[in-house]
Design a protein that fits this description.
This is M3 family oligoendopeptidase. Belongs to the peptidase M3 family. Its cofactor is Zn(2+). GO terms for molecular function: metal ion binding; metallocarboxypeptidase activity; metalloendopeptidase activity. It is a single chain. The protein has a domain of 142 residues: Oligopeptidase f, N-terminal domain (Butyryl-CoA Dehydrogenase, subunit A, domain 3). It has a 3-stranded mixed beta sheet, sandwiched between helices. It has a two-stranded antiparallel sheet with strand order 1-2. The protein contains 26 helices and 5 strands. 65% of the residues lie in helices and 3% in strands. The chain is mainly α.
Amino acid sequence: MKTWNLDALYPSFESESFQKDIQRIKELVEQSVVHAKEHLSTTDNALETLQAYLENGAELRQLLRRAYGFCSLTMSTDALNEDAIKYLNMLQVISAKTAEPSAMFAKWLPEVPNLNKLIADNEELHEIEFFLHRIVEGSKYVLSDKEESIISKLQQTGSTAWGRLQGELTSTLKVPYDGKEITLSEVRNLSSDPSQEVRKAAYEAEQAAYPQIAQAVAYAMNGVKGEVNTLSELRGFSSPLAQAVYNSRMQEETLEALIASMRKYATHFHKYLKRKASILGHKNGLPYYDIFAPVGSSDRVFTEEEAMEFIFENFRTFSPNLEALARRAWDEEWIDFTPRNGKRGGAFCSNLHPIKQSRILTNFTGSFGNVITLAHELGHAYHGDQIFKEHIFNSSYTMPVAETASTFCETIVKNAALKEANDEEKIFILEQSLKGSTQVIIDILSRYIFEQNVFDTRKQTPLNVRMLNDLMIAAQKEAYGDSLDPDYLQPYAWLNKPHYYRGGLSFYNFPYAFGLLFAKGIYAEFIKQGEPFVERVNTLLQKTGQMTVEDVASLVGIDLTSASFWDASLDVIVEEIELFLELTK
């Protein structure tokens, strides 16, 4: 069993280093509260006040990320770990106390006389200029000090608790299958099994298991979305979507151009899905249980070692540094591969700025799709490696650009594999690629539509399981058109996706589409320009924590508000679709 090693964070919850950091976090929070009350009522001695606040904040961020990372990573592979649960809750309660001084600082900073000159004349402040200007810009959305403090405390038993409930219920759900009980992650992984009989049986077992937890998870959805609706309105946003766009450092014109292109090109993806349905013997569209079915002649199953060697070889085609990062992740045990009870589903990468490392979780069973997922998460780790060069205040990048390096790395691996393939292998690899692209364009479009409708409906009434299922089916039909079998959709797609249950991160769907298409555009430039372009990509990734997404894109000459950019990136995928249709006719 190949699991990750968290010792670089802490040896254990009982260790001296962990306990020492918990104590220091408490001290820093108290210092922050006292400093705010004593110094943020006047702009006298503004430079000294600003430097003291930022020094405290930088140390606090480092320690919180380290301790919180240890707790959350432990919980992600052991959902019922009592120490992780206890300390995670403790950290959330402690950090909630920073809401009031943070709100005071956000109100104080715009009042500082000649702030721009102060920043320009001071090297340390100039380094984090974007961070400071974002605070000034966002101050209009900040409520009073007391209101922010109360909200932060209530969220611990509100959206945060609801999200934890969804995670615990889905990671511990037992699914009866083939005479035994397996985890939800394990049964969902069977969706890519070579046997259609197995895929259908797994789908039916999954659907039969969801009602056990559906009502409780529906309450979690209502709790999270109700809270977000309330807070976005209180802060002065026109909608949760407007807040998500602002938090993404994105212009609404960029999102509108992206979504419009996705809708315009949907019919191309429908052609691929219909052809897949035909190949698999379906007459009424593709049933949901066969969306992830393998097509093509490759039955290869990868071991963890083989998967990593395949990635090393192909990452090398971009740069030695990318390959070296992947080797480091393997050698230093950054990756948790094995599905097991209590481990959350899906995959993620956590960048850990305090130790300049990342940790990757995946539920690896040996499929080519698993290899692509691994490449995707290693892309996140590579992004982190660039960001680690920056000040911690410049290290928080937004949702859309978060998916850029990861999707870029997927593209590297898939395109390199395609070059070496014969026609039969090309069908397999192309289909794997199109399967992923369809998820990121069409399924993401359905999830975007669904989340908009949930927020709108939640303003009027709580949503029960039936209503959530109905909204999900309607969204799937709108996005997938007539390409899916209407008798075999996925009404519970809202239940197993943790993204919906994060109060501070709504609409974590369109960023995946952004990342895919942005990466396609960047990869096209890399193919044109070759090695000289590598450093521009690294600079782009490094600057994602201190620019708007439009400014980041401008570093490589891209205009994100232009439909022509998104259309051109989608045209790259259409070429793959046309080749797949040609090879399978």
